[in-house]
Amino acid sequence: MMAAARETRRVVGISEFVVSADPDEILITYALGSCLGVAIHDPVARVGGLLHVMLPEAAIDTGRGASTPAKYVDTGVPLLFRSAYELGAKKERLIVKVAGGAYTSASEADDLFQIGKRNFLKLREVFWRNNVLITAQDVGGSASRTVLLSVGTGEVRVRSQGSERSL
Fold it and tell me: CA angle, corner 43, sides to 128 and 34, nearest 5?
């Protein structure tokens, strides 16, 4: 279980991200359905970041892509990484974990827009182009997820359907 003597929690809302170098901070994002939670951690710099991204590409709405870049995979992920670098993280040390990307209909076959699937495909493309590997993932299915990142330890926990597990 994640616990620190002076633990503080910061909520990352939809279309938001937070990076931190506070080892006592827990970053948490709720209700990941088709959205993705992207957690990064540099164990040497002890910098962590969490992004709650909603849609695959900013090109669908360039005005909002500029004003809310964390809403989109293709603009939010680079922003998350650059912000972590500003706190001392190094790309080659980052551990990347991802959760979410669920389908939003009764079944995957009925999910007309397949936003969750498209979000994860776009994420994999962005990572492939930038030589970034995903260390662990909990994506797809129909369940909503909550993601917690301990900045000090890098531990990522996923809560879903009444249970919690380390990712």
Answer: 45
Catalytic residues: 35
State pLDDT tens for residues 48-87. 999 999 999 988 666 655 678 999 999 999 999 999 999 9
In the chain, the number of structural domains is 1
As a whole number of angstroms, the distance between CA 157 and CA 162 comes to 13
Q: What is the pTM of this model?
A: 0.91
37, burial (CB in 10 Å: exposed 0-12, middle 13-18, buried 19+): buried
Find the domain containing 56 and state its range: 8-166
In a domain, 3, yes or no: no
